[in-house]
Amino acid sequence: MVKTALVLALFAGPVPAFHPNTRVDHENRPSHACFHASIALGPAGPGYQPVYVAFQDDSLVGIVSVRSDVMFQKSTNHGGTWLAEDLLIKRGADFACYPDITVDRDGNVYIVYTERVPGGSNGHFYCVSSTDRGETWSTPAQIDDHASPVSAGWARAAVDTLGNLFSGWNDKRTGRQRIWSSVSTDKGATWSQDVRVDDDTVPSDCFHPDVFVDPGTNHYLAVSSNPYWVRPGYISKHAMFTRSTDMGRTFSPCVELDTFTSYCGQPHVVADREYVVCDYTGNSGGNQQHTQARGSTDGGVTWGPQVPVTDLDTLYTSYYNGAKLAMDGGGGVHTALMLAALANYDYNICYAQSEDHGLTWSDRETVNDVTSGNQSDPDIAADSNGFAYVVWQDQRNSRNEIWFGSNANVGILGRDPARTGRVRLAARPSLFSDVLTIRLPGLLTAVTNLRIFDAAGSLVREFENPGRAFSWDGRDGSGRQCPPGAYIIRLESSGNAVASGKVLKLE
Predict the structure, then answer these.
(1) Which tens digits make up the pLDDT trace of 434-474?
(2) Is the pLDDT of residue 15 over 50?
(3) How far apart are CA 418 and CA 420, in angstroms?
(4) Cα(379)–Cα(119) distance, rounded to whole angstroms?
(5) Closest CA to 308 of 289, 293, 296
(6) CA nearest 396: which of 424, 425, 375?
(7) Which domains are seen in the chain, by residue range?
(8) What is the pTM (predicted TM-score) of this model?
(9) Contacts of 183 (CB under 8 A, 6+ apart)
């Protein structure tokens, strides 16, 4: 007998709207601007979802930046309010920049960043950590093992289920920008010998690494934009994927993800126990750029079809520095991306989500509630109930500031309840054959009945007080096996429907 575990994740129909934006940073000096925000969520408690943001604060003289600092902010009410003052993590000698933030299962917070030596683009990569939810921070530890500073890009970090940190970055120690990685087994205090991640042989640079750890296998996943020969004398970029099955000591041959013929950049990667999902943005000539996604069910060895993350008409374009990914506890995939009208190139932050591991995507929704100026460089996180949390740099006040938006319908100050529709349930996976194990999301606390209907609306089976997890063997109330087809699962509280979702029973 084949059993299928089904996780029912809360969404609203349509997906809950993003509440009014809140500003994250408190940098109001006229000679400063904020950039490159990164977001992560800590372990949630009852009614409590810590949201952490790291960003870059630049001091400016005219249009010439003279120093960059890494700053930290946090919210304990789902992003409704933030710390009264930005917390300085690292003051750059010239540039402490490009921060990335991640959190382990114990709630320890980590920030990795690039620090450039005065007077140029050369530098090293560093990590700081906090064991008290961002109240205090460790002394910076150098991640890369290169003795002298070299031309440095950005670093990204992820953490495995054992608390080991995996960081990937691009630097120019070999004369070309290549992708490198290192691992820390002591919460960021020390780091292993650097390992080269890419296997590229084309005489050009690699860019834009992103990393993730598959929580099912603890395989370390990395993507980057690597060069390839288009024709003699012309080099472009592809989005490439690789993985390590031995904690970052070795990496598999890179797999090409996209088929763009002109350029592809900014790939991103997420995974759960069953799927790996990547997206990337590129074009095949012309002004319009597209964001596409692919999924893998075997850890990235083989890949499914390329699908558009948004179906853009010819009036709109994606941008490379967007399409960041997050995955929630039920396997739902979320993206925050930059989209612009080709007529004026004013960029907005848009959101889409996939309930089938990247095969199809919801209609895009604009996250920023003010569209004056440009909104750019988003990052995204998702909680265990399937809600998204997005940060970006925003010019609504004619300066770069860090702003936040979420579609979580709890703990948000000033949320308009009318913007959230009737709750529905997304089944992941939505296919089963013999036995379906149903697990309910934590937000459903008053379910008194679960009813199953066929596609015609006839009641098939009813369960009273179903609890958090139970099984349906595919039979009706009389014990007869139900035929293959679509079935609706409806959750009720005292006779009123509170949520519903659809599954497909196979032969």
Answers:
(1) 777 676 655 455 678 888 988 778 899 998 887 766 778 88
(2) no
(3) 6
(4) 29
(5) 293
(6) 375
(7) 17-420 (2.120.10.10), 423-505 (2.60.40.4070)
(8) 0.81
(9) 164, 165, 166, 167, 191, 192, 220, 247, 248
